[in-house]
Amino acid sequence: MIKIYSLKDFLAGLMFVAFGGVAVCLAQAGVPEYDFSTWTGLVAPANTPPAIVDRLFKEITKALNQPAVKEAFAKQAMVVKPNESPEAFKQFIKKEIDRIRKVVQAADIKPEG
């Protein structure tokens, strides 16, 4: 069984892959520039009033920062890292789209079907 753990926030951006319980740094495995992890976020419909977006952000961030919530995520090899603001998350999404677009274009990946 192979498990991929994102330890980016803890270990200077290194990714580790566990093979049978042995963690191997991807840089040591010959992939020095690997920087890809998954993330999850919540978005609201377009034109949601800013006051509602701000309230949701504050309440969700408060919940995610609870020790029991962080521990539950950690048991799934996930790191809880809320953004600083709804605008920061919006900018993060834009950067991710641009980054992945470049990968798709460079690899000449085409949709199937």
Provide the succession of SSEs: EEEHHH
Content-based structural category: alpha+beta
Helicity, in percent?
25-40%
How large is the radius of gyration? 17 Å
Strand order within the widest beta sheet? 1-2-3
Mean pLDDT: 79
What count of helical segments does DSSP give?
3
Give the CA-based shape.
flat
Gap between N and C termini, in Å? 31 Å
Largest sheet: 3 strands, antiparallel
- What percentage of amino acids are in beta strands? 5-15%
Q: Which segments are poorly predicted (pLDDT under 50) over 5 or more consecutive residues? A: 1-15
SS elements, strand count: 3
How many separate domains?
A: 2
What does this structure look like?
- This protein has 113 residues and is an alpha+beta fold.
- The chain folds into two domains: 1-37, no CATH class; 38-113, no CATH class.
- It is 39% helix and 12% strand.
- The chain is built from three helices and three strands, in the order βββααα.
- Strands 1-2-3 form a three-stranded antiparallel β-sheet, with no helix packed on it.
- Strand 1 and strand 2 (15-19) form a beta hairpin.
- Mean pLDDT is 79; it is low at 1-15.
